[in-house]
């Protein structure tokens, strides 16, 4: 995603002196953060950004709601629950969209060529998460029923190897491990219909009295977006370095074939949040009235992003 470059009008550094605590963990999906950190774009914008790491986006979001951090990185799904329970936060940017969601099978357990092949199968996933939502939507759209079995994320691949389940719907971080473990027995189905969005949520203080800080923060990321677009190889080097070499730069660029990179805020995210919140409410996980676009829209605040990249905002 390319954005028009701009001259970011900064307030004096004293006005932006308070640190911004940013819940973020190095990962393959947000190269603009790695580039902004590596090139000093946050410092250049007059910001003191302090990184706080969490084991999951859900934990980062809980820290945000508890006032422990100012900005949190996560997949969009926890925000749907947060909106249903009327928490105080706002999604202020969508950093990337993952288009490679898949269902993984073991060839010894039968064919997995179309969603219809899921009928009657035992499918492992982690209930109450975005992968559970993804599986539910695939089954609903295909008009088939299956036995959905709950398992912890790290237990899904071993369960498939043992034959305890016929297929699994794990988080994307487990895809490569599943392919390696299964070898020639690996098969996958990419039915489409769901792309996780990797978003930034902020406190009401950041969208309110600290709006200038948030604008400068997103301005640094938009500036880094241009670098990622212009030189993906260099961006991959930055991401690999921040991940301690856990993923090689060449592998990252292969992964990005399934990632729509670039900071945006658009109506498809709103539609997804409404769909997820409706699913959560229908399952009774949260007791709430059925959500609508009108009830979810206030949780997307485009003020800061519109100030630095108006072309990246399309919520209408």
How does this structure look, described?
The chain is of the alpha/beta class and 316 residues long. It has 2 domains: 13-99 and 195-314, D-Maltodextrin-Binding Protein, domain 2; 103-189, D-Maltodextrin-Binding Protein, domain 2 (3-Layer(aba) Sandwich), CATH 3.40.190. It contains 14 helices and 12 strands. The protein has helices at 31-38, 41-44, 57-65, 77-84, 130-142, 156-162, 175-182, 204-207, 211-230, 232-242, 249-255, 267-282, 293-296, 303-308, and strands spanning 20-23, 49-52, 71-75, 90-98, 103-106, 122-125, 147-150, 167-169, 186-189, 197-202, 259-266, 313-314. The strands form 2 sheets. Strands 2-1-3-10-4-11-12 form a 7-stranded mixed beta sheet, sandwiched between helices. A 5-stranded mixed beta sheet has the order 7-6-8-5-9. Helix 5 (130-142) links the parallel strand 6 and strand 7 (147-150). The longest helix is centred in the last third of the chain and has 20 residues, at 211-230. The two termini are 19 Å apart.
